[in-house]
Amino acid sequence: LFHTRSVEMEETKKSFQFEKKDIKDVKFEGGFQPAVKYDKSIVETPREIVKGALAEFTAMIFFVFFSVGSVTSMNLSNGIGGDAVPYSLTFGLSITVLAYAIGDISGGHINPAVTLSMALTRNISPVRCGAYFLGQFSGAIFGGGLLRLTQEPNSTLYHSGIGLNAHISEGGGLLYEFMGTLLLLFTIFQVATWSEIMHHRKNQVEMNKFSVMSVMAPLP
Questions:
Q1: Into how many domains does the chain fold?
Q2: What is the pLDDT of residues 144-154, one digit of tens each?
Q3: pLDDT tens per residue across span 10-35
Q4: Which GO terms describe its molecular function (predicted)?
Q5: What's the pTM?
Q6: How far out from the chain centre does Cα 170 lie?
Q7: Is residue 7 part of a domain?
Q8: What CATH number is attached to the domain comprising 46?
Q9: Residue 51 domain-assigned (yes or no)
Q10: Closest by CA position to 35, among listed 207, 205, 197
């Protein structure tokens, strides 16, 4: 009996080591490598990096145009027909839809803070990080420009609606931003890292992406 149990444990150990090796050997075209730190010996082709950067660029255009647009629309109507809940959900749902759309191309960062954290933890290369930064910042500027074109040139009502509440100090606002960003990055980083490993568990992946939306929704 003891011999049989010992053989079973040894076989389980070998199986685990084999699966672990398989995960490490997996190479992903776009974005991060979830279970592996960035290997400098792996040469990323310019085509892969540019494709990922263009995906981030496009996603940021849509994200800024529709998400920020929901806030400016409420401001233009003096708050009539809208409040904090709808535009907060717009942010959360937008990031979720875009993550589904470009996740297999760039990793679905759609946020320079996420890209920076991935680079600092060596989940993406410095070159890819720089390319993503360029795509994200330029996409955000381009999306903001398109949004501005939808308004009258001399409109005084056009603004983002971003500002501190009269009852919150500057230090308090900084703390809110810090904690919100920490929660966002913690969730996105962990979801992004483990979603590929758990790809065979469909329900787990769906819950992971839903959790990103749940975190994004209340932050605005």
A1: 1
A2: 999 888 877 76
A3: 665 555 454 444 444 444 444 444 44
A4: water channel activity
A5: 0.69
A6: 27
A7: no
A8: 1.20.1080.10
A9: yes
A10: 197
